[in-house]
Amino acid sequence: MKQSEIKELSIADLNEKLGALQKNYTDLKMAHAITPMENPLQLRSLRRTVARIATELTKRELQ
């Protein structure tokens, strides 16, 4: 998810998306620990997307 797409979402949408992505990330991380993933770069991109959304939420709270 790109930063421009994240900026267009509302705070409620961002919170919902953040929860879903964090759950997805932990599930993928556990699955990768058991059997290695074919493309481990998915973990990196998902982790960065979670960070982008969390950063946008923090930025909006401070405004």
Q: Which tags fit this structure?
A:
ribosomal protein; mainly alpha; 63 residues; structural constituent of ribosome; Ribosomal_uL29_sf; Large ribosomal subunit protein uL29; ribonucleoprotein
Give a summary of the structure in a few sentences.
The chain is mostly helical and 63 residues long.
Secondary structure topology:
Layout: H1 3-8, H2 11-34, H3 41-62
Between the first and last Cα atoms, what is the distance in angstroms? 23 Å
Task: State Rg.
Answer: 13 Å
Low-pLDDT regions? none
Tally of DSSP β-strands: 0
Number of domains: 1
Strand content: under 5%
Structural class: mainly alpha
With helices defined by DSSP (H or I, 4 residues minimum), what is the helix count?
Answer: 3
Average residue pLDDT: 95
* Major beta-sheet overview: none
What is the overall silhouette? elongated
Give helix and strand order, one letter per element, not per position.
HHH
Percentage of helical residues? over 70%
Protein name: Large ribosomal subunit protein uL29
Keywords: Ribonucleoprotein, Ribosomal protein
GO molecular function, one term: structural constituent of ribosome
Family: Belongs to the universal ribosomal protein uL29 family.
